[in-house]
Amino acid sequence: MGQLRIRLSFAVQLGLAFSAAAVVFLLLRTSDYLGVDGALRALQIYDLGRPFLHPNNHLLYPVNVYAWSVFMGWIGIHPKDPLAFLAIAQAMNGFAAAGFLTILYALLYKLTGRAAIACFTTIGYGLSRAFLAHATSSAEPMVGLFDSGVSVMLALYGVTQNRVWACIAGGATLALAMATYQSMVLIGPALVLLISRWPNHQTENRFVGRLLLVLGLAIGLILGVVIVFGTAYSWAGAHSATDVYHKFRETEPALQQNGGLQLVRTASMLAGLAYAAFPCLPRECSGFRCLGSAEYHSWITIAALAIVVTGTWLFALIGFTKKLWVHMVQHERVAFTSCVLAFVLSAMPLAWWLPTYDKLWLQPLACLFLITGIIVHVALRAMDSMKIPGARYFVPSCAAALALIIIPNTVKALWINARPAPYIAQARQVAALVKPEDLLVGDWDPIFLLYQALWGSRADIFNVPTQAIHIGARTVSDLRQTVIRAEERGGNVFFLGLLDVPEPEWKLAFEGRELPYGAFESYRRNADAVESFRNDKRVITLRRFATSSVPGGPAHYPIRAQRVRLGAR
Known about the structure:
- It is built from 24 helices and 6 strands.
- It has helices spanning 2-27, 42-48, 61-74, 82-112, 115-126, 129-135, 141-161, 164-180, 188-197, 206-235, 241-249, 253-258, 263-267, 269-277, 300-324, 330-352, 362-386, 394-418, 424-433, 446-454, 464-471, 474-488, 503-509, 521-525; strands spanning 439-442, 460-463, 493-496, 527-535, 538-545, 566-567.
- A 6-stranded mixed beta sheet has the order 2-1-3-5-4-6, sandwiched between helices.
């Protein structure tokens, strides 16, 4: 009966953890649809009304969103417009995030036996900036993160109960996590370490037993990759094993163009971790380089403080690990070492590509919170015997560090949802001016991106930086032909924001993609302002282009400039 009560108690704890997290994330679903990269991609499924495949870095995201939308339809929830569809995609991520936090709580509780440590560590991770932003948005990685958590639980169950089938299932689930968000597979070697080193009381054939479990994980992963990716590519039109293999090896052009090991990127990893944990950058910034602009100087102190706190956190973990290692029991050492390996491996894409790309911080950050929970548990257990100077300040220090994460991120989420959705009104104004037969040319400014996602299906869109990633220098000639086609069908050509980018910013953003500033000079000279909108402290202008200025384009009547207004954000 005692065991039954413990199991029921643990089950109730898991139920409460999932329910509380789900309610919080559903209530905090964001109205800032550009708060994280990729959140608007869910609308591709809304526009097409059918599943399809994304590139390999988040291959199954459209399938997941479509399946979730079908399930929502079965229970009577039918989105009436694009924003309502985004809301149900956000709900999918909210439930996946709640599931992952429940797994994190279960791992911490089983490792430490302390509900308080499991609870507060899970809350800290759940309300970290990167995790909260993705749990309340419709971006890609959250389902993959949940799948990776399920894989860890299956592998741990397999090794503790000596169940090969669980390790096979864990490997297959890790393959599914990889297909959902590619970097999630990087914890695989850490699972091998966990399985091979986890303590048990078996004395005979221990090596053979562990080898079978590791082989089970590997076989499950290989079979999962073959089945999941093979089925997906075959459904998308691959006709042979060679086609499947080549598709499996495909890499996003942006990763090829911008990736690589650089000293600056490696040195920026601490700053990237600080940004993953704390809201220490302006909304318009995706990296710390923007703090060099005069309008963002007030953020330098906040960013510096976040980096100092993060560095102190890591330094404290290293210091306590040296002192506490001898006080750890074997399973704590194995769990700790596996988490460190998983942290290093899952953080490698950040050093390769972009240290502030918060999607890629979700898994490393979870590992870091697991490490922290283990260290706090061992420290509390060994506190009396170690006689650490200032030991009475340990728990208050942990509470203060947790508050520094929880309070700013929660306040920011509430503040965002208390305001009108950013840039929706301006995008709606653009939609009123640009007709279905017109062409709209732009870059990655928020008004253009929102228009492209919400109204782009009814109009012709040319996204210059996106095209530049895929076709490079041919972007200029492709744009010229697209402009000519718009004129031939009787449409106008509008530029939103692109022609107002200052030359220094242009060189930084585009010339590496073979788009010289001078290649757009004829567009700048022959485009008249129609409407202007304020994007933070920058003015985004909608301009109408006289298409007769394009070589090879038919003549057009002169265009009269209209009155320019500043739209409120």
